[in-house]
Design goal:
This protein is mainly alpha-helical and 68 residues long. The chain contains two helices and no strands. Helix 1 runs antiparallel to helix 2.
C-alpha cells in the first residue's frame, strides 16, 4: 500500500508542478493588469496577496487529492 501512495503522490506532485508553471505567468499578468487599472501604486502588492491566497487553495486541493 505504501508503494501505491508514493506513486500517487509523485504523480500528483509532477502534474500540479507542471500545471502551476504553465498557468502562473498567465494568471499573474492578468491579475497585475487588473489591479494596475484600479490602483497603480499597489498593483504589485495586491497581485502578491492574490497569489498567496491561490497558493493556499492550491495546497489544500493537492493535499485533499492525496487522501482520495
Amino acid at each position: 500500500m505504501d508503494g501505491v501512495i508514493s506513486d500517487k503522490s509523485a504523480g500528483l506532485y509532477g502534474s500540479f508542478y507542471s500545471i502551476g508553471m504553465i498557468i502562473s505567468p498567465i494568471m499573474g499578468s492578468l491579475i497585475y493588469e487588473h489591479f494596475e487599472g484600479v490602483d497603480e501604486t499597489n498593483a504589485f502588492n495586491k497581485t502578491c496577496d492574490v497569489f498567496a491566497l491561490l497558493t493556499i487553495v492550491y495546497t489544500v486541493l493537492y493535499l485533499s487529492l492525496i487522501h482520495i
